[in-house]
Amino acid sequence: MNTTKRTLKISNTLSGKKEVFTPLHEGFVGMYVCGPTVYNNVHLGNCRTFTSFDIIYRYLLHLGYRVRYVRNITDVGHLTDDGEDRMAQGARINKIEPMEVAQKYTLDFHDMMRTLNNLPPSIEPRATGHILEQIEMVQRILERGYAYERNGSVYFNTRKFAQENPGVYGRLSGRVLDELMAESRSNLKSQDEKDHPADFALWMKARPGDLMVWKSPWSVGFPGWHLECSAMSTKYLGQTFDIHGGGGDLKFPHHENEVAQNHGACGCAPARYWIHTNMLQLNGAKMSKSEGNYITPEQLFSGDSPLLSKAYSPMVLRYYFLQAHYASVLDMTDEGLLAAEKAYRKMMEVNKILQQLPADTTVYDGSESEHDRAILRHIEEAYEGMDDDFNTAIALAHLNELSSYVHKIANQQIPLNDVSPWVIERLKATFRAFLFDIFGLKDETESANGSDLVEGLMALILDIRANARAQKDWATSDKIRDALAALGIAVKDGKEGATWTRI
RNA sequence: GGUAUCGUGGCCGAGUGGUUAGGCACAGGUCUGCAAAACCUGCUACAGCGGUUCGAAUCCGCUCGAUACCUCCA
Fold this sequence. Notes:
alpha/beta, 5-stranded antiparallel β-sheet, 4-stranded parallel β-sheet, 16 strands, RNA-binding
């Protein structure tokens, strides 16, 4: 793929519009995505968010861009309702070091990303590894007059910033600072040492008992949650870069404050395009542990939940995500997962059939048949779907249309010589590119068949059954089929003999 | 309470001022010893009520419902 040949459009949540994507430096893309806070096992909603960005990353790569994809690990500064650091809370409860908590759940997160076949980012910086950069950024913001120190803590002066930089604060989230003030007066909380409710912490002075603390010019303490992303995106992608992404729940205050910090430190905007992914619901409502409307990724993969009729594989989950646009709320249901499972398996089967189609490259005469044109149109429309704000649902719909052509060709409902060999080759390449490179799917149906030993045994069993069938010994034939079914193996009788798959 | 987004056929879900999205399920058919699988065909919806328009599911208003966010924390 050549980047110059396609026009990519991105819904930029900063402008609220769909815009043509033009990178800062031709051929290169810098993308920052807010990663997980590693204080707990990864949530299904996180799986959707990071899979959405993985597909965006993969499509940019497919278009030929050289992408630097930075996704952080938050291992300090993200506080709980009670003002305790999430890592420290985990450490206190489990009587271990905060870094053990971070390590444990970072590994868990990486395992899940691998399971879902998400590509690793180019750089995965940790907040605790960039304390110096964060302190320097606070200093710059102080020097430029947009922050103040109070009892060893440093706060961002949101009102001053908003007054001197009209149109910046609130642009991303649609908030109006005056309204924020008005709202907060009614439920003002007394513990604030900030000048103004809209101000937020850049540096927090440690309280007695805080475990994760560092020295700074202001106090022994720790950085504010919003600061790490500003400091690390600047360090690895520059003051201004192409794309900043994250879950929609981070838009305010996290991303709004990030923008303010970057402006405050350098007088310029961080990202030119902001992408926000949407939430994952379960049975029409938000996932909630306390309401019982909740499943973990592990439960999904094991089927161990009253909300599920069976286990679903990671690739079925990925396919489920692909069926919706990343910016839409996606509702997960058992019935929907069953549908996705079936559709995913069919897609993999169709691809196998397609890749085995003969291609006689000698009869190319430069002509285009009606079928050629229809196939090429669907291929183009699949790409146009991806170009239009990474619309995987549209792309998938056209692959399904193409699947029908593959079956018709394989069944000879469409004679093979009615389709030009170069179109067949193009079709094969399109399926490989979309399924594996762009969508990031893996063919689990193939690997699920198992070892050479199993393959050999199955070939033998099916051979014996074929002999029985040839002699119309249906009792033996059905006995084998039923016994295999009981073991979770489905036998499919086709014209060219029997094949098998795991159920 | 405020701000924002959304509400599509049995289910999931794209899209959109006038044209079949797609998948699953379902029904009929082909194939088959039977079944399964596979394939073909069918299934035309946009929360409710008003308004704008030659024409709206798509624009506007209201109502109801869902979700997100609401300033270290929600």
